[in-house]
C-alpha cells in the first residue's frame, strides 16, 4: 500500500507538472523512445508480421525495463520519496493533455480571427489529416475529434495503466501508443510489420477508451446524449477505441462528428457519430477542451481509488 500511495502522489504531481508546464521542451523521453524505435525498425524490418511482433516486444520491454530500473534505484537510494519523484517525472512526460489542449485552442484562435490558412498550418500538430482541402467548419470538426481521441490516448489510458502497474505500466502504454502512431498505419512498408503494434495498441487502449467515454458522459453537458451516441454509433467507427470516445464526446457536446476525411491523399468515408447533433462550429473547440480537462481530472481520481482498492485486495489475499 505504501508503494501505491507513493504512486498516487507521484501521479498527482506529474499531472500538475503537465498542467503547469506542458510537455518537456527538450530531451522529451517519448521522442527519444521514438528515435530508438525507428533505429530498431531499420535493423529488424522484414515484410512479415513476426518481424514486427519482435520489434514491438523488444522496444516495449526496453521502455518498461528502463523505467522499472530507475524506480528501483530511486527507491533504494532515497526511499519512498525517490520513488514518488520518479513516478511524478514519468507521469509528466507520458501525459500530453496540456499540450493537446493548447494546440486545439491555438487552432480555435486562428479560426476565430478568420485565419483559415493559419489554422491549416497548425492542424498537423494535432492530427494527420490533409488540411488544405478543409474549410473552417471541417477544421473545427477535426480538432474536436482529435481532442476526444487524444484525451483517451494521451491522458486517461496512461492513468489506467499507471493504476494497474505503476510507472512501468504508464511507460508501456505510451510505448505501445507511440509504436502504433509510427508503424501501425496501413502503408505498404508497415502493412504487415506494423500489425502487432496496431493490435497491441487496440488491446492496451480498450479500458482507457471506455473509461474516457463514461467520464465524458458523466462530466459533459448532455449525459443522456453521450450515452445514446455511444450506444448507437460507436460500433460503426473503424477504430474499436476511438469510436466510443468520439461518439460520447459528440453526444455530450450535441454535435455531429465523423464523415468524409482525407489522410495522406487517401479519402475515407466514416460513419456519422451522433446524427441528431448539429455541425461543429469553432466555439465547440473550447467546449471540447473544457470537457477534456474535466475528464482528465476525474480520471486521476477514479484510477487512484481503483488502484488503491486493487492493491488492498491483493494484500488481503497475500498476493503482495
TrEMBL record:
Pathway where it operates: Cofactor biosynthesis; adenosylcobalamin biosynthesis
The protein's superkingdom reads Bacteria
Q: What is this protein called?
A: Cobalamin biosynthesis protein CobD
A single Gene Ontology CC term? plasma membrane
Record's InterPro entries?
Answer: Cobalamin_biosynth_CobD/CbiB
Can you supply a Gene Ontology BP term from the record?
A: cobalamin biosynthetic process
Q: Report how it sits in the membrane.
A: Multi-pass membrane protein
Function as written in the Swiss-Prot or TrEMBL entry: Converts cobyric acid to cobinamide by the addition of aminopropanol on the F carboxylic group.
- Per the similarity annotation, which family is this? Belongs to the CobD/CbiB family.
Q: Does the keyword Oxidoreductase apply?
A: no
UniProt entry keywords in alphabetical sequence = Cell membrane, Cobalamin biosynthesis, Membrane, Transmembrane, Transmembrane helix
Q: Which GO terms describe its molecular function?
A: ABC-type vitamin B12 transporter activity; threonine-phosphate decarboxylase activity
Q: Which cellular compartments is it found in?
A: Cell membrane
